[in-house]
Amino acid sequence: QVQLVESGGGLVQAGGSLRLSCAASGRTRSTSGMGWFRQAPGKEREFVAAISWRASDTYYADSVKGRFTISRDNAKNTVYLQMNSLKPGDTAVYYCAATQPYRLGTSQSEYDYWGQGTQVTVSS
Fold this sequence. Notes:
mainly beta; 7-stranded mixed beta sheet; 53% strand; globular
């Protein structure tokens, strides 16, 4: 089993920045693809960003492209989401997720392990 724990969420004003972290433990695999998803109140959980195990490939939702950056440090078993120019529409619970080795995707069904989520609230 792989355990994922997110941190770094909080309350920020529009235009501000936050950096989310996701620490992996247990039977971690540095070869897993990692992703961030979010779920706003009353909405479905949606894809935000993903990164391949070598960090050679990254994918972003159109809504965050140019504002968010996903990165990873395999030596620390940690993936990050740097969020800049935050908007009230970014308010959601953000979840970290991991795939099986050597996989990567933008669909929730491609991820086998999930964290508990961290709340991000952007005030106007």
